Amino acid sequence: MQLRVRAEQQTPEWKTRYAVRSGVESTVNEFAHGHGMRRCRYRGQGKAHIQHILTAIAVNIERLSGLSPAEEAPRPRQPTAFQNYLDQREIPRLKSWRNLGS
Q1: 77, 98 in Cβ contact below 8 A?
Q2: 45-60 b/e (C-beta count within 10 Å ≥ 16 → b)
Q3: By the 8 A CB rule, do 37 and 55 touch?
Q4: What is residue 5's three-state secondary structure?
Q5: What is the pTM of this model?
Q6: Distance between CA 20 and CA 83 in Å, rounded?
Q7: Mean pLDDT for the stretch of residues 66-92
């Protein structure tokens, strides 16, 4: 079983799927740990959904507030270890990744 999984991790399809995941991990971590999204303040799916939406809006405002008026786009993030691995082996990144220019 473990050998099969490790062999699968070497395929381009798996690496493509993992690349997308690694691109959003920091955002998920920010929500879970930085904004207390592991527990909802309200009961019920509808109220929890509203809490998630409002928290996402607050995070976006917080991110945008770091921009000066002259800037149009946020500064790129530092590449992850996985992105460095791909760059060293000249494996192209997906265009959906935030850190395109490094």
Answers
A1: yes
A2: eeeeeebeeebeeebe
A3: yes
A4: helix
A5: 0.47
A6: 11
A7: 77
Q: Are 93 and 83 in contact (CB under 8 A)?
A: yes
> How far is residue 62's CA from residue 22's CA, in Å, rounded to a whole number?
22
For the record, the structure tokens of 86 come out as 């791909």
Residue 87: predicted pLDDT: 87
Residue 49 · residue 100 · CB < 8 Å: no
* 94 within 8 A of 86, measured Cβ to Cβ: no
| 33 closest CA partner among 49, 1, 55 | 55
Of 31-40, 51-60, 70-79, the least confident? 70-79
